[in-house]
Design brief:
Blueprint (H helix, E strand, L loop, with lengths): L3 E7 L3 E10 L2 E11 L3 H12 L7 E5 L28 H9 L3 E5 H12 L5 E5 L6 E7 L2 E7 L5 E6 L2 E6 L5 E2 L5 E2 L8 H8 L15 H20 L3 E5 L7 H14 L10 E2 L6 H8 L2
Parallel strand pairs: 1-4, 4-5, 6-13, 13-14
Antiparallel strand pairs: 1-2, 2-3, 6-7, 7-8, 9-10, 11-12
């Protein structure tokens, strides 16, 4: 009997939707479509109208967060304290489930990507870190054949950041950068979102793909991410770091991060070749959503 599931990767800017079919024990994605992430009600209408034309057994959701993932909580499947104000406390999973009359599975986009990459791609101990606006660091460990996912709040990681020629030393639990008038964020990942990059360049997010690879902004973003990788290397002895997310579609960042990281570490510990890598799994967010239980 053929398995068919609707897969959604809900990001802060774009949403990927597809229908997953299991063929010879392997998930294949068909009928992919990309939507803009608009207001919650408008976005749900877009998704429901598209998915209604297909037959599937369940809705598999990998979403930006933070999410309520306690199945005993009435808010299970809701987006909680996100910087996207209109999405705060929105029951995205329950809403789609009710309108499409299908059961759902949900987890963070970071966890879903990490699960897919762990099971199907880079199967070493590694840390999967998406470039998103939450303080959401995911550690994946292989304990015999068990996948253990732990959300870490790196509250006391010392970072050095360069902002408009000022050197600012801070702790992550004292983050203080204004992303919007309503929401303040100060962390290395928050400084690297498409929102933060667009604000630095004073351009719309939609114009970021047109920024050339030799623009100085990518050296700055690469420095921030290399510094994050340095701290994670020291704290967790990670064997490999997989960096994903929309910002990392700028492939030049991988070489910048590698160079900056090696300069920062300065042979204090040995860093293997191909240490910071991109995901190996194609459509990793959608595939990860399909793997959720």
């Amino acid at each position: 009997m053929k398995q068919s599931k609707a897969a959604l990767e809900i990001g802060g800017t774009f949403i990927q939707v597809g229908i997953g079919e299991k063929v010879e024990n392997k998930w294949m994605i068909t009928n992919k479509k990309t939507f803009d992430t608009r207001d919650p009600q408008e976005t749900v209408i877009d998704l429901v109208q598209y998915l209604e034309q297909f037959e599937f057994d369940s809705i598999q959701i990998a979403s930006f967060g933070p999410l309520c993932l306690n199945k005993d909580d009435p808010q299970y499947g809701s987006i909680t304290s996100t910087p996207k104000l209109k999405w705060q406390n929105f029951p995205i999973a329950a809403c789609l489930s009710q309108k499409l009359n299908k059961p759902f599975a949900i987890d963070t986009d970071v966890n879903a990507c990490a699960m897919a990459e762990f099971m199907l791609g880079n199967q070493n101990s590694y840390l999967q870190q998406a470039i998103i606006m939450q303080d959401n660091h995911q550690l994946i460990q292989q304990l015999e054949q068990v996948l253990a996912s732990v959300q870490l709040q790196m509250d006391n990681v010392f970072m050095e950041c360069y902002i408009q020629k000022e050197v600012i030393f801070y702790f992550l639990n004292k983050r203080k950068i204004k992303i919007s008038k309503e929401f303040v964020l100060f962390m290395e990942i928050g400084l690297c979102t498409n929102v933060a990059i667009a604000k630095r360049l004073n351009c719309p997010i939609t114009e970021l793909p047109n920024v050339s690879d030799d623009h100085p902004i990518w050296q700055l973003i690469g420095f921030y991410l290399a510094e994050a990788c340095q701290n994670l290397l020291y704290l967790l002895s990670i064997e490999k770091i997989v960096l994903g997310g929309g910002v990392m579609n700028r492939k030049i960042l991988y070489s910048i991060i590698d160079q900056r990281l090696r300069t920062l570490v300065n042979n204090y510990v040995q860093i293997p070749q191909n240490y910071v890598v991109e995901p190996q799994v194609q459509d990793v967010g959608l595939i990860g959503a399909l793997l959720l239980q």
